[in-house]
Design a protein that fits this description.
Elements (H helix, E strand, L loop, with lengths): L6 E7 L8 E7 L6 E10 L2 H7 L14 E9 L19 E4 L9 H4 L11 H4 L3 E2 L18 E5 L3 E3 L6 H4 L5 H12 L8 E4 L3 H13 L4 E4 L3 H10 L3 E3 L6 H9 L4 E6 L14 E9 L13 H6 L3 E4 L7 H13 L9 E6 L3 H10 L4 E5 L4 H6 L5
Parallel strand pairs: 9-10, 9-12, 10-11, 12-13, 13-14, 15-16
Antiparallel strand pairs: 1-2, 2-6, 3-4, 3-7, 3-16, 4-5, 5-8
Helix pairs in contact: 5-6
The structure holds zinc ion (2 copies).
C-alpha cells in the first residue's frame, strides 16, 4: 500500500540535445491509485532513447530516459493489489517485474479490441510526472518510464510479474527491444512455419525478430546488417543467411535462399532511411514489408500503388511489435524458460548509472546488441562483477 510519501532517488537527467545526462538527486512521488513503485535493477539502452538525445525526434527537455527495465516492486498504490476486472495478475511488494512503456486503460476502444499500443486512455501519471527536481520542477518520464534511475513509478498496466528464476539483467530486454522484434514477427507479420523472413538491422529489435522467426519455424531467415559482428550474432541466434547491405547483393542472396520467390516478410528494424530503398522489390507476391524501426520525423518513402495491388503486397507499420503486454511478455518468458529464446546472450555490456554516457556511446557506435545500465550498482561494484548472468 502507498505510504503517500515520496522518496529520494538518483536519476540520469537529460537536459538537452547532445548533452550527456547528469546524475541528479530527485524526489519520486509515491505511487497513486493503479500505480507501482519499482526498484530498477536493470534498464537497457534503446535506440529510441538516443533518438531524443541526438535530436532525431523532437522532444522537450529535461527528461529522464530509459524504458526497457526490470526490477522489484517496492510499493503499490492503492488499490492495485485488489483491483477487480484487471487483466494483469495481482502484484505484491518484492515481486520481480519487467516494465514496458505501453500503458493500457483496459476501457478505451483500442483496449477493448486488444490493441494495447493504440490505447487512448487518460492517465494521471501522464500529465503529472512523479519526478521532481531539486528546484521543484517536474521532470517528464521519457517514453512513459524514466528508468535510468534507481526507482520508477509507473502505471500498473506497464508491469508484468516475472518468475523468480529469470535475472533482471536478462528480463529487462523484454521491456522493449526483444518484445518489439518478436511482436513484429508474431503479431504484425504473423509468420508461420516455412515462411521466408528477411530482417534488416540486427540490434536488439532485429535479434528479437530473428529469434521469434526461428521459433515460428520460418525458413530461410536472412539477416541484414553492415556490421560483421552483428551478422555473426544473427547467425548464432538463428539466421540461416547473413548479408552485408553495403557489399553484398541482397536481392541475389534472397533469391538464392528462397529459390526465387523472395521475401514473404521483410522487417525493417532500423530507422535508417537507406534500409527502405528498394525494399518493396524484395517482396514475394503476397509479401509484407513491416516497418518496425522508427525513422526520423521527416523521412518519407515513395511507393508505386500498382506494385502493391498487382502482387498483393502490403506495407504494415508495427508500433512496439503490436504487442499485448499481458499476453506477449509471459509468452516470451515461457520461450526463455524452455531454452528457445536467448536473452542473456544479447547483453553486450553493463554500466553503473554514473557511467551512462559511456553506455550511450556504445549504442551510438552501433557495435553492441544491448547495453544495460544497472542503476543500483556503483561503478566500483560494476567493474568487479560485470555481466552477472
Ligand atoms: Zn525502446
Ligand atoms: Zn485504453
Amino acid at each position: 500500500m502507498s505510504t503517500g510519501r515520496g522518496v529520494t532517488i538518483r536519476a540520469a537527467v537529460s537536459r538537452g540535445v547532445g548533452l550527456p545526462p547528469s546524475i541528479e538527486t530527485l524526489t519520486l512521488d509515491a505511487p497513486g491509485p493503479d500505480e507501482v513503485r519499482i526498484r530498477v535493477e536493470a534498464c537497457a539502452v534503446c535506440h529510441s532513447d538516443l533518438s531524443y538525445l541526438d535530436g532525431t525526434w523532437a522532444t522537450e527537455f529535461p527528461l529522464v530516459l530509459g524504458h526497457e527495465a526490470a526490477g522489484y516492486v517496492v510499493e503499490l498504490g492503492n488499490p492495485v493489489a485488489d483491483s477487480e476486472g484487471a487483466s494483469e495478475p495481482g502484484l505484491a511488494v518484492g515481486d520481480p517485474v519487467v516494465v514496458t512503456l505501453v500503458r493500457t486503460c483496459g476501457e478505451c476502444r483500442a483496449c477493448q479490441r486488444g490493441h494495447d499500443v493504440a490505447c487512448t486512455g487518460d492517465f494521471p501519471i501522464a500529465s503529472k510526472s512523479p519526478l521532481v527536481a531539486a528546484d521543484g520542477d517536474r521532470i517528464p518520464q521519457g517514453l512513459n518510464v524514466g528508468a535510468f534511475a534507481e526507482q520508477v513509478v509507473v502505471h500498473r498496466s506497464q508491469v508484468v510479474r516475472l518468475p523468480d528464476d529469470i535475472e533482471p539483467l536478462a528480463a529487462c530486454l523484454l521491456g522493449c527491444g526483444v518484445l518489439t522484434g518478436a511482436g513484429a514477427v508474431t503479431n504484425t507479420a504473423r509468420v508461420t512455419a516455412g515462411d521466408s523472413v528477411v530482417v534488416v538491422g540486427c540490434g536488439g529489435v532485429g535479434i528479437g525478430a530473428v529469434q521469434a522467426a526461428r521459433i515460428a519455424g520460418a525458413n530461410p531467415i536472412v539477416a541484414v546488417d553492415p556490421t560483421p559482428d552483428k551478422r555473426e550474432s544473427a547467425r548464432g541466434f538463428g539466421a540461416t543467411h547473413v548479408v552485408d547491405p553495403v557489399h553484398d547483393d541482397l536481392s541475389a542472396t534472397i533469391t538464392a535462399a528462397t529459390g526465387g520467390p523472395l521475401a514473404d516478410h521483410l522487417l525493417i528494424t532500423t530507422g535508417s532511411p537507406a534500409a527502405l530503398d528498394g525494399a518493396i522489390e524484395l517482396l514475394a507476391p503476397m509479401g509484407q514489408l513491416i516497418i518496425v524501426g522508427m525513422a526520423a520525423d521527416d523521412v518519407t518513402i515513395e511507393v508505386a500503388p500498382s506494385w502493391l495491388a498487382a502482387a498483393n503486397k502490403s506495407i504494415l507499420g508495427s508500433k512496439m511489435g503490436t504487442i499485448r503486454v499481458a499476453q506477449d511478455v509471459p509468452a516470451l518468458i515461457e520461450h526463455h524458460r524452455a531454452g528457445r529464446l536467448d536473452l542473456e546472450g544479447m547483453v553486450s555490456s553493463t554500466h553503473a548509472l554514473e557511467d551512462i554516457a559511456e553506455a550511450f556511446e556504445e549504442v551510438w557506435r552501433g557495435d553492441v546488441l544491448r547495453t544495460v545500465v544497472l542503476p543500483n550498482v556503483t561503478a566500483t561494484q560494476e567493474q568487479e562483477a560485470p555481466v552477472p548472468c
